[in-house]
Design goal:
Elements lengths: L5 E6 L3 H12 L4 E7 L2 H11 L3 E5 L7 H11 L4 E6 L2 H13 L3 E5 L4 H7 L1 H13 L28 E6 L3 H9 L8 E6 L6 H11 L3 E4 L10 E4 L5 E7 L2 E7 L11 H11 L4 E5 L8 H9 L3 E5 L9 H8 L4 E3 L1 H13 L2 H6 L1
Parallel strand pairs: 1-2, 1-3, 3-4, 4-5, 6-7, 6-12, 7-9, 8-9, 12-13, 13-14
Antiparallel strand pairs: 10-11
């Protein structure tokens, strides 16, 4: 029996984008466009009629803003949404807000040569629609419930050599936020690869920096890696952990994509295995694909202690599942417990870490 195709509804005010998205999606054997809409008001009725599996949604549209529509949709009829965003500063800020509201992921419209540019994204768009169709959809977040923050780590003898090395993809922007927010200001340094194109990681870092007690920034080539900071790989650059004398430093490069990604989680994890060894706590969060699985195993073999997000709290249980299957994971932990488990693990080092 042939599996049912993924039903996609495309919402965009541009007739060209609607046509190109239809061409791209219908070229895949396992998905089809069941309808297109020029604005959210038309889309609202088509959702009721067509019951799509995935919605692609333009960020900026007439009659009703894409964010307003997304917020209402995720409150009243949660479903997988893939945002279609402009490569602009405003577009990146709005996209970060869309992910916060519950969108699964986003794709970008090229600034020039829209037809050729989008066609080059065919595989990426198809992969993201497949991931979205399997995603665990979050409802729009409610007001803060007063849940207490993770207790601050109080270990003055904790080695400053300790590092948290983290990788994520689909669903990762919110998972990373949830992981970083409870960290104490004197947390070990955190190096992060989140699959995201150039132009979006700066907005992501700025948003997190305003929410967290640690400082969150885009990594810069050659800068020293310090406690109390989280360093996010810039879109389109690999991030590696490196050494300069006694110090850890960030190393950026434009080398070829790994696992079709730049930045790649495997690249970061491999460098952490080489230069961090037993000083590393590795964390892999929600995401599609297998990027990071081999690197996490290499970190474990080098002495790192590794944790993976559990299936029940992942938007997409791809990367953690592959890392677990590869044998690189010590603990499988729900997202809401991840920071606390990492802090507890770090606290066990204490003066022992100084003597190693």
């Amino acid at each position: 029996m042939t599996a049912a195709k993924i039903k996609v509804l495309c919402v965009d005010d541009s007739a060209l984008i609607r046509s190109l998205m239809t061409e791209i999606i219908n070229s895949q054997p396992d998905m089809e466009v069941v309808g297109t809409a020029p604005d959210p008001l038309v889309a609202r009725e088509m959702i009721k009629q067509l019951n799509p599996d995935v919605l692609t949604l333009d960020v900026e549209m007439p009659r009703m803003d894409g964010l307003d529509f997304l917020e209402r949709l995720m409150r009243l009829r949660p479903m997988p949404v893939l945002m279609v965003s402009s490569l602009t500063e405003r577009g990146s800020e709005i996209t970060m807000r869309a992910l916060e509201l519950g969108a699964v992921d986003f794709v970008t419209k090229p600034k020039l040569g829209i037809r050729d540019g989008l066609m080059e994204y065919t595989d990426t768009i198809a992969d993201k629609i497949r991931a979205a169709s399997r995603a665990r959809v979050r409802q729009a977040p409610q007001a803060a419930s007063g849940t207490p923050a993770t207790p601050m780590l109080r270990s003055p003898l904790l080695s400053t050599e300790k590092l948290i090395i983290l990788g994520a993809s689909t669903g990762g922007t919110e998972a990373i936020k949830d992981f970083l927010m409870p960290l104490p200001p004197d947390s070990p340094a955190v190096l992060i690869v989140q699959h995201m194109p150039a132009g979006f990681t700066r907005s992501f870092a700025q948003r997190l920096d305003g929410l967290c007690r640690i400082t969150v920034k885009e990594a810069q080539h050659g800068e020293r890696v310090l406690p109390g900071y989280a360093y996010i790989a810039p879109g389109d650059s690999h991030l590696r952990l490196a050494r300069s004398g006694a110090n850890y430093v960030a190393h950026l490069s434009q080398e070829a994509p790994v696992n079709r990604h730049r930045p790649s989680v495997d690249v970061l994890f491999d460098s952490a295995a080489e230069h961090g060894g037993k000083n590393v706590i590795g964390v892999i969060l929600t995401g599609m694909g297998k990027d990071g699985a081999k690197g996490m195993l290499r970190m474990r073999e080098a002495g790192a202690y590794n944790l993976a997000q559990d299936e029940s709290t992942c938007i997409v249980f791809g990367m953690p599942k592959e890392a677990i299957a590869a044998g690189g994971v010590h603990e499988v932990v729900p997202l809401h417990s991840m920071t606390q488990r990492v802090m507890a693990r770090l606290a066990t080092y204490g003066t022992r870490a100084q003597r190693v």
